[in-house]
């Protein structure tokens, strides 16, 4: 399966996906074939180039509306014959049209145990709430914010003296395991999104 990854920043999750897909023993059934960023000169674009993967920056200011920008993203994905799209730290709201077009083939990683702490600053929300446990969630994307059907979660403890930074680091490590695992479940046909928006498992 050809995988496109949308990014906005550091791209450590992108790197985890690249590394797993390059490892034949990981059996990912996935090639990272295109990386698109809505931010210029981010480390994620450099990571893609270093791995020999086409890396495209699209400037939202070049488009009159969100729909037009997302249509340009879709056009790039289609041009590269992308089957599955991963959001890896993509800090931009998607238009409903884009979500509908890629439904069932579009997954996101979020740094909390959803449905707890959706939206921005999930790690701070977690610490402020006094949670003893956090983690990450990989889910299909629907029209809501961090609401789609959950493929898998990985849990990490929250320590008494954790700061947002120390917790973020621990969650990141779990993300780098969870995202490739979830992508593999999708590209190997083990999981699918039903037309009702629920998870379907296949053995
Ligand atoms: C991750 O924590 C991810 O859950 C969130 O944005 C962060 C991206 O980090 N959506 P990176 O760019 O992959 O390092």
TrEMBL record:
Q: List residues of the Formyl transferase N-terminal domain.
A: 1-183
Official protein name in the record: (diamondback moth) hypothetical protein
